[in-house]
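agent> Task received from the user: take the single chain below, predict its 3D structure, and emit structure tokens. No templates, no multimer pairing.
agent> Plan: (1) validate residues, (2) run structure prediction, (3) serialize to tokens, (4) report one or two observations.
agent> Step 1 OK, no nonstandard residues flagged.
tool_call: predict_structure(input=
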Amino acid sequence: MHVVIVGAGSVGRSIARELLSHDHEVMIIDKQPAAMRVAQVADADWLLADACELPTLAEAKVDECDVIVAATGDDKVNLVVSLLAKTEFGVPRTVARVNNPKNEWMFDESWGVDVAVSTPRIMTSMVEEAVAVGDLVRIFTFHQSGADILELTLPPDSPLIGTRVGQVPWPQDTVLAAIVRGTQPIAPSIDDTLEVGDELLIVTGRDVDEAELLRVLVDASPDGGNGIVDETTGLPV
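)
tool_result: status=success, residues=237
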């Protein structure tokens, strides 16, 4: 895969090194001479130029790349690069760094952004995930589809403790993607039994009611039952 990274700061260089270690081709663009630390990512191609200008992107042969990553510390630059890459050069996939969470609303397909990565939001999610038990934590949102990746650690009083995955009345457009038990990730089957402290990684569609999902996972159902149904009959257990 051929990847163009705009921004040669610590973030851009780290991404480049990781991609190169996986045998991808990488070009790094930055307009600041002080940022051209070529020796630190010697296997990448480097270009000293302003990526917000069309001639620069043409020189970098952006039209031939698979992905462009706008990783500068300036949200305006990241938006312009994404828009030019998508509209002028037809880059299949654009990934843009969001520095200020207040600007997240702009990082969507109207600005040519396929995937927006907000470091502050990710760090916030990681902090919440580390301390929250029994709460849904949004780990990531796919901006194109609106789908979310949610995490929940099952508390001791969850009605699902000791229940098989196949018995859980998952809301529509909700998929249990993985169970993390201790340090062990588990690909869930309908016969796996949920335990206290299990971390559930859940993928939900754009219109899923998170309050309803939380009720299923943590709270008792309104009718006094435990919210569990038989997967064969569809009746409460």
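agent> Step 4: summary for the user.
The first strand starts at residue 2 and ends at 6.
agent> Done.
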